[in-house]
Specification:
Strand content: 35-45%
Radius of gyration: 21 Å
CATH class of the largest domain: Mainly Beta
Number of domains: 2
CATH topology of the largest domain: OB fold (Dihydrolipoamide Acetyltransferase, E2P)
Number of helices: 3
Distance between the termini: 76 Å
Order of helices and strands: HEEHEHEEEEE
CATH superfamily of the largest domain: Nucleic acid-binding proteins
Length: 163
C-alpha cells in the first residue's frame, strides 16, 4: 500500500468518525416540532404517567391555577409544580408512540393565550372542546409560527377532563 493510499484511508475514516459524532450529538439532543412549536430536551422530559380516574380527585386537590404572571416574571419559578388550567382545545397531534400534544387556548392568560400540553396517552377530545388540564408546569416553549415567535407555558399533563 502506498503512502498516498494510507492518507486517503485516514481521511475517509476521519470523515466517517466526524459524521458519527454529529449523528450521535443529534440523537442525544432531540428536537420535537409540532404545530410550529419546538422543544429542546429528551422525550421523557415531556410526558408524565397519567393518573387513573380513581386517583384523579386526590391529584387535582394538589393543583393550583397556573399563575401566568409568576411565569412571565421568572419562567423557571414553577417548574415541577402541580398546576391546572382551563381552555379550548385548539389543535392536537397524536404521535405514533400514543402520546398526544395539545395547543390549548386560554384567553385569560396574556397577550399570547396559549398553553402547550403534553399527555402520555391518546385523548378522545376534539378541537373546540373545553378542557381542564392537570399536571406539572414544565417550562416556556416556543411557538415559531407566530410573528414574532413567542414563548408560552407548557404543562406535562397527567389528567385531562372535558368541562
Amino acid at each position: 500500500m502506498a503512502i498516498k493510499d494510507i492518507g486517503d484511508t485516514m481521511e475517509i475514516k476521519t470523515k466517517i468518525l466526524v459524521a458519527l459524532v454529529i449523528i450521535a450529538s443529534v440523537a442525544f439532543i432531540s428536537y420535537i416540532q409540532i404545530f410550529g412549536l419546538s422543544f429542546e430536551g429528551k422525550e421523557s422530559d415531556f410526558y408524565l404517567p397519567t393518573v387513573s380516574e380513581d386517583n384523579a380527585s386526590a391529584y387535582k386537590a394538589f393543583c393550583t391555577e397556573l399563575n401566568i404572571y409568576k411565569v412571565l416574571e421568572n419562567p423557571n419559578s414553577l417548574i415541577g409544580q402541580k398546576v391546572k388550567v382551563k381552555g379550548e382545545l385548539l389543535k392536537k397531534l397524536e404521535n405514533p408512540d400514543n402520546t398526544t400534544d395539545i395547543l390549548l387556548k386560554v384567553p385569560e392568560l396574556a397577550k399570547y393565550p396559549y398553553v402547550i400540553v403534553r399527555y402520555s396517552d391518546k385523548i378522545t377530545y376534539k378541537e373546540g372542546d373545553k378542557l381542564e388540564v392537570y399536571g406539572e408546569y414544565s417550562r416556556l416553549s416556543l411557538i415559531e409560527n407566530e410573528k414574532p415567535a413567542v414563548m408560552v407555558p407548557s404543562i406535562n399533563a397527567v389528567y385531562i377532563e372535558k368541562v
